[in-house]
Specification:
With 562 residues, the chain is of the alpha/beta class. The chain folds into three domains: 281 residues, Ribonuclease Z/Hydroxyacylglutathione hydrolase-like (Metallo-beta-lactamase, Chain A), CATH 3.60.15; 149 residues, 3-Layer(aba) Sandwich (Rossmann fold), CATH 3.40.50; 99 residues, Ubiquitin-like (UB roll). 32% of the residues lie in helices and 23% in strands. The strands form five sheets. It has an eight-stranded mixed sheet. A six-stranded mixed sheet has the order 8-9-10-11-12-19, with helices on one face. A six-stranded parallel sheet has the order 15-14-16-13-17-18, with helices on both faces. The two termini are 56 Å apart.
Length: 562
């Protein structure tokens, strides 16, 4: 198949995972990118700050990139933009207003100057040599969420972005009419949000959450209310502030991300009553019935405001038994234990706690099965490739598509890097582009690989054993018994006998190694590691990282460390 007759679609992140969304559509010498997100590391990625997409293919094909299109302002869709701009030249970035404000903040923090960040709305149209691009409004847990329709020489590709079909939303409703119009014009390929594909039914309307929160505030008029929710859920924050205004409460903010979100919401016009926001110091001077504390920490993050309040370590807020704590959120997968721990600490302090498990005070921003099926019916695609989800979500979403009259052979479960090819005659999977996980470790990008992570895991579980030995390499002598020190393995003072055995064995290994004609530092270190590992495993049942430090001392040459 000639490449020039093919439109290629592939993901650099977002397939088989929830996070680091990044998708590309290519036709000949043009590439458009959709989203550029991060994924937060699992607990086993020790020391890693972020996981970002692999930009190798984009670097090689930099001259073909026409634009980066942003669907909305969540971290898993915009979080890696600073890293992308440091690696690849992106001519233009198109983003809705809320996302632009968040991106501007990120670039400012990273001291990155970028002038071609353009605001779009659902009436914006972008035309390139091969692509005609338009947008449609969706409902999500952040304002200004959009899906994208890309007309290519080989048919229209629709990417839904993150969405739910909320018929009574807080904020604008999804533009179902425009979706249906695009569907009537024939959609070749639909790529749809799969986050809640395994959940039957319909997602809870945000208006129900608003009603239930209003009821709690009405029932707890005399008590101080501490409320934790996702800082990015601007519509919910807006209505919490509105509830506070109706109940004559001031609002104090705790947590950096909460400060940032509220500041951007005010600048973008979503929150208009600035006077209702007070400082923590002012909040402490008010009566309990006159204040609501908006906090980060709905996911049990150890350093977040609510966690520190629960621990009693927050400098400004001390809990009292009359306080009310509201978790207007649900635990993200992997965070359930941390959230439960925070809730237990709150109960121990005698605090009354409201959670989504007892009262419907949180709604997902992602559609459940009925909404996913409605989206498929609206667009009526010939081919279907679910995205934004783990494999089980993608598989279930494909099954849903089949029930909505998409042929089973026309559904594709792709992995990051897989290339889906669209021609006039057919759509097929063929080819692969680099799409590895790239680790961000402090200021370093991609320098930390699997071996480093493996060593960190080993050190965290088994500790480290350092052997320091002085030798005369020329005379082939060990000048003194080796010195042994450990961290995280055994206590030296409490294991004197074992330390002496290690010293003796290490000394014997070094002396034997020095007898060889072509002895070098590498050989001595290898002999030490290989010789001590079985001994340590036998004595303690664990093998630490063994770090030999060999110092060559010679009267003529002085000292040399290896």
């Amino acid at each position: 198949m000639k490449e020039e007759n093919t439109t290629k679609v592939f993901a650099l992140g977002g397939l088989g995972e929830v996070g680091k969304n990044m998708y590309c559509v290519q036709n000949k010498d043009e590439i458009v990118i959709i989203d550029s997100g991060v994924m937060f590391p699992e607990d086993d990625l020790l020391g890693i700050d972020y996981v970002i997409p692999d930009y190798t293919y984009l670097k090689v094909n930099e001259d073909k990139i026409k634009a980066l299109l942003i669907t909305h302002g969540h971290e898993d869709h915009i979080g890696s933009i600073p890293f992308l701009l440091q690696s690849v030249n992106i001519p233009k970035i198109y983003a809705p207003a809320q996302a632009k404000a968040l991106i501007d903040k990120k670039l400012e923090e990273k001291n990155i100057k970028y002038k071609n960040l353009i605001i779009y709305n659902e009436n914006t149209k972008i035309k390139t040599k091969y692509f005609n691009i338009e947008f449609f409004r969706t409902t999500h847990s952040i304002p200004d969420s959009h899906g994208i329709a890309i007309k290519t020489p080989n048919g229209t590709i629709v990417m839904t972005g993150d969405f739910k079909i909320d018929l009574t939303p807080i904020g604008p409703m999804s533009n179902i009419h425009k979706m249906a119009r695009i569907g009537e014009e024939e959609v070749r390929l639909l790529m749809s949000d799969s986050t809640n594909a395994t959940i039957p039914g319909t997602s809870l309307s945000e208006s129900v959450v608003d009603e239930n929160l209003s009821e709690i505030f009405a029932n707890e008029k005399q008590n101080r209310i501490i409320l934790a929710t996702f800082a990015s859920n601007i519509y919910r924050l807006k209505h919490i502030i509105e509830i506070c205004r109706k109940n004559k409460r001031k609002v104090a903010l705790f947590g950096r991300s909460m400060d940032t979100s509220i500041d951007i919401a005010i600048k973008c016009g979503y929150i208009k009553d600035k006077k209702i926001i007070v400082t923590p110091e002012e909040a402490n001077r008010l009566k309990p019935s006159q204040v609501c504390l908006l906090c980060t920490g709905s996911q049990g993050e150890p350093l977040a405001a609510l966690s520190r309040i629960a621990n009693g370590s927050h400098k400004q807020i001390k809990l009292t038994p009359s306080d009310i704590v509201i978790f207007s959120s649900s635990p993200i997968p992997g965070n359930a234990a941390s959230v439960a721990k925070t809730i237990n600490k709150l109960y121990l302090k005698g605090v009354k706690v409201y959670t989504n498990g007892t009262t419907e005070i949180h709604s997902s921003g992602h559609g459940c099965q009925n909404e996913l099926k409605l989206m498929i019916r609206l667009f009526k695609p010939e081919y279907f490739a679910p995205y934004h989800g783990e494999y089980r979500m993608l598989k279930t979403h494909c099954d849903l598509a089949v029930t909505c009259d998409v042929s089973k052979e026309n559904t594709f479960i792709l992995q990051n890097g897989d290339v889906l090819n669209l021609t006039k005659d057919k759509v097929f999977k063929e080819g692969h582009v680099p799409a590895d996980d790239i680790y961000v470790d402090g200021s370093r990008i991609g320098d930390v690989g699997n071996m480093v992570i493996k060593d960190r895991k080993l050190m965290s579980s088994n500790g480290i054993l350092v052997i320091i030995a002085n030798i005369d390499l020329q005379a082939k002598k060990l000048l003194a018994k080796p010195m042994i020190t450990t961290r995280g393995y055994i206590l030296v003072n409490e294991n004197e006998s074992l330390i002496k055995q290690i010293e003796k064995n290490a000394g014997n290994i070094i002396e034997n190694a020095l007898k060889s004609k072509n002895t070098n530092y590498t050989d001595i270190k290898s002999e030490l590691i290989n010789g001590l590992m079985p001994f340590l495993a036998d004595k303690t049942g664990r093998v630490p990282i063994i770090l030999p430090i060999i110092m060559n001392i010679n009267e003529k040459e002085g000292a040399e460390w290896k």
